[in-house]
Amino acid sequence: MANSMEMSVEVDLDRRLLRVRYEGKFSLVEAQDTFHEILNALVQHKLRKVLIDGREISGDPEPLERFYYGKFAADAVSQAVNRGRIEVPRFAYILKEPILDPNRFGETVAVNRGMRVKTFDDAKQAEWWLGIAGSK
After folding, report:
1. Is residue 37 assigned to a domain?
2. For the chain, what is the domain count?
3. 34-67, pLDDT tens digit by residue?
4. Within a 13 Å sphere around the CA of 124, how many CA atoms are in the beta-carbon half?
């Protein structure tokens, strides 16, 4: 079966930033699988910030999928930090509804488990939160 979600990754060593762009139909399994790839790149390059642009993702995740993704991501980050001896990274997700949950349920689940993450509908706000605003 072909993946329905595609991901591209760009490493910006100057700003210790990983830029990730997703497109396609949302799948919890694929989102979890590709999240491991993101963490591997973070550990390999000792990066501190991740900007995930998911504005081209389609679908409408169920609340339970949002819970599982938030829990999974927070647990995976914690393991990567401990295993890779890296600083706890900051994740900014740029999304649009319905992938972006107006109630931020998945974000809340992840934050409550120690992940430094915030979701946005505006790229400039996400960049500001990561501390990379105004730079290319």
Report:
1. yes
2. 1
3. 999 999 999 999 899 999 999 999 999 999 999 9
4. 1
Report the CATH number that the domain containing residue 20 is assigned in CATH: 3.30.750.24
For residue 113, is it left (φ>0), alpha (ψ between -120 and 50) or beta?
alpha
Distance (Å, rounded) from C-alpha 105 to C-alpha 110? 9
Domain limits at 122?
5-129
Cβ atoms of 10 and 18 closer than 8 Å: yes
> Is 136 part of any domain?
no
pTM value > 0.85: yes
Length of the chain: 136
Distance CA 39, CA 54 (A): 17
Contact call for residues 67 and 106 (beta carbons, < 8 A): yes
Angle, to 10 degrees, between the axis of helix 105-112 and the axis of helix 63-84?
Answer: 30
In order, the DSSP letters of 3-31 are: -SEEEEEEEETTTTEEEEEEEEE--HHHH
> Buried b vs exposed e over 29-64: b needs ≥16 C-beta within 10 Å?
ebbeebbeebbebbbeeebbbbbbbbbebeeebeee
